[in-house]
Amino acid sequence: MLKPMQIGLIGFGTVGSGTYQLLKRNQHQIQRRLGRALHISMVADLDVAKVKAVVDADCKVVSDAQDIISNPDIDVVIELIGGYGFALEVVSKAIEAGKHVVTANKALLATHGETIFESARQQQCMVGFESSVAGGIPIIKVVREGLAANQIEWIAGIINGTTNFILTQMHEKSWTFAQALEQAQSLGYAEADPTFDIEGIDAAHKCSLLAAIAYGIPIPFSHAYVEGITQLQSKDMQFAAQLGYRIKLLGIAKRTDTGVEVRVHPCLISERSLIANVEGAMNAVMVHSDALGTSMYYGKGAGGEPTASAVIADLIDIARMASTDVANRIPHLAFQAQSIESPAILDIEQVTTCNYLRIAVADQSGVLASITSILAEHSISVDAMLQQPADSTSKQTELIILTHEAKEGVMNQAIAKIQTLSTVLMPVVRIRKEDFN
């Protein structure tokens, strides 16, 4: 049997401690599969005493990550500290030292991934990042390896559990966004500063990585369209439900004849679709490819052991491929480096979707005709409509209109013209609608 692979773990928070405990608990089964042991022999964390209280005596605990990086006996470095600054330094130095790396840091890879992967390629090192997208769901492996024979047409995913929890509460309990966010924070689903989650940035990091491995393109985060959920109201959830839809924050990557779409925003999706019924903090990713058709992958997108499951899966892959000829290893971004292409990443105004419009209007005759006339002028047809009972005090009502497909730029022009009508009393609310049939 091969000698154990020596691993240095940097960061002993929820995922770090989960990785240590899961590896220890299932070491026998992992060794049966792999033919060698995986041994976390060093941990770096500022709270040395906390770590020492958890790990076994044969695991050395240090406060300085450099002690791990400079140790010639360490084969793999696991980076679980997060962020852009120090994490980039740790990963870069580990690769320079000739060590393989496993990271759950989607923000780091979305912004610096190309540099990291190129450095790893030159140093003949591997970088595992399965845990960076959708927690324990093995979606990176599915897209990069399981669907390698397919042309991937689109990917659409609920890839942020915090926002999905918030939207679930707004739908089920008619809570305001603020109420749902407060509960998410009290339960530990949302950080004290939830900006990355609620503004869609976290989902955009993950969506960009999926797009890169699906289409063999440079990581497109800087060109992605990102819109969060802070402007959504519970009444939009109820109106959507009346029309047979749910509202979810989706990360979407789609290949078209004119380029690649990479976008994150709230969407109306049919309540009959599987992904519409993904509730709470759960994640799900749908992938549509030419040979397989549509498949969906569902599970926990965060948490200590779910994410640790993906971290250890990367360790196992690295252990298996470490002795493989470098040219025959699976490329980090699925495609060979010389085959990476740079198609246009479409601006949101070039994207075509259906739309939900909520329009507060004066309760008087001719209003609906004026609005539908403007839509018709822009060749936008109406699919369905709701009109709420008029408020007898304010003499106003709300129109809910679902449109057929229209290019975003054209829809923006139509909305701008509708907004000029004297009978339109508030800013028009627009939410995109996607059909995944």
Strand content: 15-25%
Shape type? elongated
Name the CATH superfamily classification of the largest domain: Dihydrodipicolinate Reductase, domain 2
Global mean pLDDT: 95
- Count of distinct strands: 16
Structural domain count: 3
Rg from Cα: 24 Å
Point out poorly predicted stretches.
none
Q: Distance between the terminal alpha carbons, to the nearest Å?
A: 50 Å
Within the CATH hierarchy, at the fold level, what is the topology of the largest domain? Dihydrodipicolinate Reductase, domain 2
Q: Tell me about the largest β-sheet.
A: 10 strands, mixed
* Count of individual helical segments: 15
Structural class estimated from helices and strands: alpha/beta
Quickly give the CATH architecture of the largest domain.
Answer: 2-Layer Sandwich
Question: Please, could you describe this protein's structure?
Answer:
This protein is α/β, with parallel strands linked by helices and 437 residues long. It folds into three domains: 5-128, NAD(P)-binding Rossmann-like Domain (Rossmann fold); 139-299, Dihydrodipicolinate Reductase, domain 2; 348-433, Alpha-Beta Plaits (2-Layer Sandwich), CATH 3.30.70.260. The chain has 15 helices and 16 strands. The protein has helices spanning 14-25, 27-34, 48-52, 65-69, 85-96, 106-122, 139-146, 161-173, 177-186, 195-198, 201-215, 234-242, 304-321, 367-377, 408-419; strands spanning 5-10, 38-44, 60-62, 76-79, 100-103, 127-128, 152-158, 225-226, 245-255, 260-270, 282-289, 293-300, 352-362, 382-387, 396-407, 429-433. The strands form two sheets. Strands 7, 8, 9, 10, 11, 12, 13, 14, 15 and 16 form a ten-stranded mixed sheet that branches. The protein has a six-stranded parallel sheet with strand order 3-2-1-4-5-6, with helices on both faces. α5 (85-96) links the parallel β4 and β5. α1 (14-25) packs across α13 (304-321) and α8 (161-173) crosses α9. The longest helix is centred in the last third of the chain and has 18 residues, at 304-321. It is elongated and about 80 Å long. The model has no long low-confidence stretch (mean pLDDT 95).
